[in-house]
Amino acid sequence: MDTEPKTVPGRSGSLWCFDVDVSADLVVAVYAGRDRSILRAYSQPKLLGASWNPAAPVLAREVPLGGDAFAPGGTAYAVETQGQHAYVGLGDGGIARVNLRSGAVEPGPRGVGPRSKVRDLSLAGNHLYAAAERSIGGGLLELDLTQAWGPDMAVLSHGGEQLLGCGVDTQAQQVVLGAGS
After folding, report:
1. Bridge partners for 122 per DSSP
2. Extended strands (E) in 83-117
3. In the chain, fewer beta carbons within 10 Å around the N or the C end?
4. Mind listing the pLDDT tens digit for each residue in 27-67?
């Protein structure tokens, strides 16, 4: 993950891109600014023969992230896609799931929120891992995605403090963590 966010030109000049993921047919990015966060899904450029289509990706959907369903200060730091869903790490706002077809935003488990600042996400099969920065309610969090998504989901905490990143090595069957100093 690129640790330096990039500015968005044009109408979103006050937003920064924090993370990008690629699904089967979309490039999904999360942007955050001082007062808002959004998810943008773009069509992927198509390979034409031996070269890429010169046309820029087209914005397919823009979804505001925030409002009553999330804790104040939910900054979109991370995104992971699986099928028709994008999972978004919203810092103090916990984790949300976005339906990429409809744009519906569903808040995640109550156990992930203001006390566990979600900084990064990683998917492995039916498990979503979250790196949470705060020592109270922080560390490595695991969600079993075979459960019904929503506020009542069980969250397994593996402990740790001040985690800023996580990734999954599926061949070695391990989760790799990045921590602050």
Report:
1. 129
2. 85-91, 95-99, 105-107
3. C
4. 999 998 877 889 999 987 665 555 555 566 788 899 998 65
Burial per residue of 141-165, b for 16 or more beta-carbon CB atoms within 10 angstroms, e otherwise: bebebeeebeeebebebeebebbbb
Q: Rounded CA gap, 131 and 133, in Å? A: 7
Q: Return the number of other C-beta atoms located less than 10 Å from residue 83's C-beta.
A: 10
Q: How far apart are CA 45 and CA 12, in angstroms?
A: 22
The answer to whether 130 and 95 are in contact (CB under 8 A) is yes
Distance from C-alpha of 45 to C-alpha of 59, rounded to nearest angstrom? 11
Between the alpha carbon of residue 119 and those of residues 42, 147, 164, 170, the distances in Å are: 23, 23, 5, 21
Beta carbons within 10 angstroms of residue 81's beta carbon: 21
In single-letter form, the type of residue at position 64 comes to P
| Cα separation, 29 vs 93, whole angstroms | 17
Total length of the chain: 181
